[in-house]
Write a structure and sequence with these properties.
heterodimer; A: about 475 residues; 3 domains; 5-stranded parallel sheet; 16 strands; B: Rossmann fold; 6-stranded mixed sheet; binds adenosine-5'-triphosphate; binds magnesium ion
């Protein structure tokens, strides 16, 4: 998302431009006088300025050098009501990206804007120099994961809070650790707060520590995790599980950098960098008052969203190779090969548990193929192989029908959509039959409980 | 003093209980007390006692599965031993109970990336509560 400043006094046009830039995923702001324009450009860090020529308090071409020199060094596109060749030449000489006449602006702007922003992104990257990122075992080279690694590198250079979002098992903790390892705080502690497994009664004392006497037991000497993260990174994992009361206390720590241990009156300080992770939709939690809006605002100073595995299947082969070679090392075995059907079968599955489920699945396959030098699809669990077989049947059926009755084939839904609707129906009947008892349901369906929970979550059903 | 307990959902028996492995080194009583208290909190369990750290790590290499919960009660020497074979524990969720608390042991402990870090206490109330919640989520 780029930040764009529109300097123009024509209200109708600015409305159109704002809408157009928003549709391209950018954030735009308007200034309707030259003075406002220059001031805003100095204060905000804009990537691009759309500058009118005829303004009530000045001529855009005269002010062009001023805009080019503000701290963020934005690109400038001149948007003029009356084009003239001399004006165009002057604009380009003074460093404008291009010169567009108003009648063509809605048609031409997108392309010019995209090119200017791409140029700018490349220029910035080159200026930063090649970043040597410690990948910390993050495997994958898909466009999606590379984009996340870029964001990681960026986040590691600063001290801003980072929120890592993504489905279960997508690597949120792995990324959190990598941010720490690549930051100037790497020599200090990386402290995990597992918000999901801390009972409410323990959470504040675990975070902030407690005064002697507040609790019995010999662990009184233990400081809180916030203190242990002093100079380092505090990782709030599953931050959506933080009780609302604790959210308030935590917000205070973020705002004031100081806190009080449970049962104590002295203020303590801690200089930590915050990284939080969640697989929940926190905006939605805010809307039902389960999460504080002000806390979310602080957490998401920078956001890294990790894609589900099914959206980056290009990485499946390298991930599989990585996990299998680690298993070989672990069990002191020779390197194993994959049969041709192995990765194809893995690719047909949609991995609701993402990379973690892949690692677990490969563990199963590895033990099934313990004495075999090659992993074949039939070493994989049934639920994965069945899907591959069905996909194959469905594909040949569809292509058969497509040859005979094309109109019918066109009315078929996409495979995933078809399977999802049947999957949901199956789960609903399963829950009805077992009266919502997950243990019983997992027995009937012959699915592990973890897998069943993942399927229920996927379809928004409850056991 | 070392005490290690491992909860393995994959090794779960038919009744749905977790297998618990325990490794105890002097004084044996402490480890057993921990196992008993925790066992009471989570239901039946199977106990395996290892005689030496070498035997333990060799066994963990193959007994440990992705997502298993491991509880270790450790002093500074044990932390050093665990750090030396960190890649074995990496796939587990670790609960660490420190018997020596100072800046150095805490820093060593965090390098093992525990999901819960606490000090030794007589009744293991915190550990039982956290373990209970973890097992509940994994059920
Ligand atoms: N890109 C990756 N390369 C290698 N391993 C990965 C990658 N992503 C995830 N993993 C592995 O998958 C497992 C799950 O990752 P992690 O714990 O970071 O996920 P998560 O998003 O925090 O999941 P959850 O929401 O369930 O806590 C770990 O064993 C991790 O090492
Ligand atoms: Mg996680």
């Amino acid at each position: 998302m780029a930040k764009i400043l529109v300097v123009d006094d024509d209200r109708n046009l600015t409305r159109v431009l704002i809408e157009q830039t928003r549709r391209m995923g950018h954030h735009a702001m308007v200034a309707s006088t030259m003075r406002d324009g220059v001031e805003n450009a100095r204060l905000g860090d804009f990537d691009l300025v759309l500058l009118d020529v005829q303004m009530p308090d000045g001529n855009g071409l005269d002010f062009l050098p001023t805009f080019k020199e503000v701290a963020s060094r934005p690109e400038v596109i001149i948007v003029t009501g009356k084009g003239d060749p001399a004006g165009a030449a002057k604009a380009i000489k003074s460093g404008a990206w291009c010169y567009i006449e108003k009648p063509h602006v809605t048609k031409d702007l997108n392309l010019h804007m995209a090119r200017a922003l791409q140029y700018r992104a490349e220029k910035n990257r080159a200026a930063r120099g090649p970043v040597v990122l410690k990948r910390e075992m993050i495997i994958g080279s898909s466009i999606k994961i590379n984009h996340c690694l870029d964001q990681l590198a960026q986040a590691a250079m600063s001290d801003v809070s980072v929120l890592i979002t993504g489905e279960t098992g997508t690597g949120k903790e792995l990324f959190a650790r990598a941010i720490h390892a690549n930051s100037r705080r790497s020599a200090k502690n990386f402290v995990v707060v597992d918000c999901a497994s801390l009972p409410e009664t323990l959470i504040e004392s675990t975070l902030f520590g407690h005064e002697k006497g507040a609790f019995t037991g010999a662990d009184r000497a233990m400081t809180g995790l916030v203190k242990q993260a002093d100079g380092g990174t505090l990782f709030l994992d599953e931050v959506g599980e933080l009780p609302i009361q604790t959210q308030k206390a935590f917000l205070r720590v973020l705002q004031e950098h100081s806190y009080r241990p449970v049962g104590g009156c002295d203020e303590l300080t801690s200089d930590f960098r915050l990284v939080a992770a969640t697989n929940r939709d926190l905006e939605k939690q805010v809307s039902v008052s389960a999460f504080r809006k002000d806390l979310l605002f602080r957490l998401k100073a920078s956001v890294i969203h990790l894609p589900p595995l099914k959206k980056r299947l290009e990485d499946l082969r390298s991930l599989t190779g990585y996990f299998v070679s680690r298993l070989c090392e672990r069990y002191g075995q020779e390197k194993k090969e994959f049969g041709v059907d192995f990765v194809a079968t893995l690719s047909a599955y949609d991995w609701p548990g993402n990379v973690r489920e892949l690692a677990q699945t490969l563990e199963h396959a590895f033990s099934a193929a313990f004495h075999s030098p090659t992993l074949y699809a039939n070493h994989l669990p049934d639920h994965i192989r069945i899907l591959q077989a069905q996909t194959a049947v469905q594909q040949s059926k569809t292509s058969l029908q497509a040859c005979q009755i094309p109109s019918d084939a066109l009315s078929l839904p996409a495979w995933r959509q078809f399977r999802d609707s049947y999957e949901k129906e199956y789960l609903q009947r399963l829950l009805a039959q077992t009266k919502g008892n997950v243990s019983a349901a997992s027995r009937v369906a012959d699915l592990s409980r973890t897998h069943l929970y993942q399927l229920l979550a996927k379809h928004d059903l409850q056991g | 003093m070392v005490c290690l307990l491992l909860f393995s959902p994959i090794m779960k028996d038919q009744a749905g209980d977790y297998a618990i492995f325990i490794y105890v080194r002097k004084p044996e009583g402490v480890g057993e007390a921990l196992a008993n208290i925790i066992g009471r909190a989570v239901g039946q369990h199977q106990l395996t006692i290892f005689a030496s750290p070498a035997e333990l790590t060799a066994s963990l290499r193959t007994a440990l599965h992705n997502g298993d919960i491991v509880i270790v009660q450790a002093d500074q020497n044990t932390l050093a031993e665990l750090l030396a074979c960190q890649e074995i524990l990496e796939i587990s969720r670790l609960i660490l109970i420190l018997t020596e608390i100072n800046e150095e042991t805490i820093a060593m402990a965090h390098r093992l990336r525990p999901r819960f870090l606490t000090g030794l206490d007589d009744e293991f109330l915190k550990v039982s509560a956290v373990l209970g919640k973890m097992l509940e989520a994994a059920a």
